[in-house]
Design goal:
This protein has 736 residues and is an alpha/beta fold. Helices cover 52% and strands 20% of the residues. It contains 24 helices and 25 strands. It has an eight-stranded mixed beta barrel with strand order 17-18-20-21-22-23-24-25, surrounded by six helices. The N terminus is likely disordered.
Length: 736
Amino acid sequence: MPALFKTKNKGSGIGRHATVTGVLFSFAVVVAVVTIMVLSALERVASKSNVLDDERSRETMSGALHTFAAQLSATLNDYAAWDDAATNVYASDGMEWTVSNYGEMSVNSSLFDMAIVVDDNRKSIMAYQEGKPMDGTLDDFFAPSLWALFDRVKAAGPGQTPEATGFVDTKTGIAAVGIALVRKKSGELDLPPGQHRYLIFARHLDAGKIDDLGTTYVIGGLKLVPAETAATYFVKIEDVVGASLGKLVWVSRAPGDIGYGEVRPMVVKALCLVGLFFVVLLVIGLLAGRRLRAEEVRAREETLRDRLSGLLNRDGLRLAVDSFVQHAAQTNRNVLILYLDLDGFKEVNDAYGHGTGDQLIRAVAAGLKVLIPEGAVLARIGGDEFAIAFTSEDGDAAALQLSEQILDFLAEPLEIGRRVVVIGASIGIASSVGGTVDREELVRRADLAMYKAKEAGRARMTLYDPAMDADREERNALELDLRMAIEGGDLTLAYQPLIDAATHEMTGVEALVRWNRPGHGPVSPEVFIPVAEASGLIEALGLFVLRKACETAKQWPELRISVNVSPGQFRNPAFVDYVRYVLRQTEIEAKRVTLEVTEGYMIQNPQRTRQAIERLKTLGVKVALDDFGSGFSSIGYLRQFGFDRIKIDRSLVMEILESDGQREMLQATVALARSLDIPVTAEGIETEQQAVAVRLFGCDTLQGYFFGKPMPAEQITERLLDARSKKMGARRISVA
């Protein structure tokens, strides 16, 4: 038994050894196979990770190039579609403005390093690089593809934005180049083809900007190489005609290889660590995915943000309001939207420049952020326009309360740098009750209400009312008919006599435009003049009145002719040239023509007003201050601008017979003008007693219904003929 047992035990030991060996061998084989499979799988994972990362890098760099050009395009639009640019770039004396606002802005600018203005014939009007005049010609510096972009802008048809952006090879490297027609913010330009001017911005892909791109988008070893250079990881840069300009190349990060190299020793040492490796790999994958998703979210959010203020842009507002409307429809809440347009922002921009204007926008944005309720969205949707949207259960009350807070905030002076500015806002309010009004209609209503607030006097809020749509349609129809009347010469002029206070003889007339609208009858100037101002028709209307009045006045050589000038005409730097052209065309003596301007525009733009008056006086025409005493009249204006005449507003004349205070005010006003040796016209004379009173106070010229209402030119001629006959009769009697 023992021997048997020993034998058996020995056999059992051999069996166990064989079994253990087999198991170990099998385990080793399994481990080897599993290790090989794991390593093979890891290699494939590493390779796939490298491919995905490289593809992401390629897509990221493509997007970065697009963003680089898109930033230039957005900047170009701000500077080209600008009312002041449409005024000064085309002006004969606008070079100083053009250099200051375009050329000198290219120094140390992250947005553009070259600013060029050319005409329709590709002739350079101004060319600055890095804040200094550019050396050489454009053809020497830019590749011919520049003009392909130029031709695309010139060929832009109606409804198309006259702008184009692309990459162009230059003497100093590759640059994103944008070309745009210089025009008004509205897109209008009152110049025919052949007289257009175009703004060109260039932004070079220099080493510093390429390093910034690499840092921003986490791309290692990013650099620019010639197009023919062989590279594994690259994005081509092509110009507008498809020619390769160069490549952006980079070094692959190979994150898979890095991970594989770190994990492999542990897998070789112990299979148990394979599980840990997969955990680590999973974590790395999750982190990489989270980072990619975060980058995607950030990129998407960037497209919905305004670069200057950091607020949502128009697209961001669109998505937010759509979401509010959808949610309101489910919860039966109300969506409220406020449209804000800053009052006086253009004047700040004109007076202090874009830098101060940008600071003002950021200051207003910061203040509005504090005021808006929780859950509301705030967006900048234009140069000086903002919008606020939120949901509420209180109907319009919440919007009215917020609007009042905003108006109070903007009524306070704002300190911008070392300057203190005062602005206001016109606010339009619209609501979607229970989400029944969609976003597009809701925004339209708020925008319409905002314009109604501005028309009503600014610095106020207005709720949308359906009647506004009818008003807008009527206004649009009125504007269309007025445009046709101006173009067709269907307007007429009436002339009101100007009477010498001493002799009671007619010494001049004031030309007043009249419009008999077909199908509607006479339209008051108080109605169609503001429409002409708002629609940009005022310059054409004013030119028509001036030309017609001068042509008619040629038949009255003994009379002066007075014509009213609107602020819209005075704002045009070419206005003096228009007056010179009319004087030459009608062959009337300049000294017989008096242009009357109100004081409102002088308060906003004293420097421009003074320059315009000085240029008008060089032509020989007279300039009169109209409606003196109705607003901010001061002796400072009379001294500063050197008017040839002032016209006392009718409000000072109406009650001079009944009110001692009114008489004293009128007497003081006339005395002020006479002390400065400025002749005075009193208008609004309706009775003989009023005429006697203002004559005794010192007015040398009288005007009003007592001496004659505005009348056709034929009646003025009849009065002149009658006056001449009486003079001839008096002479015959005296001779006899």
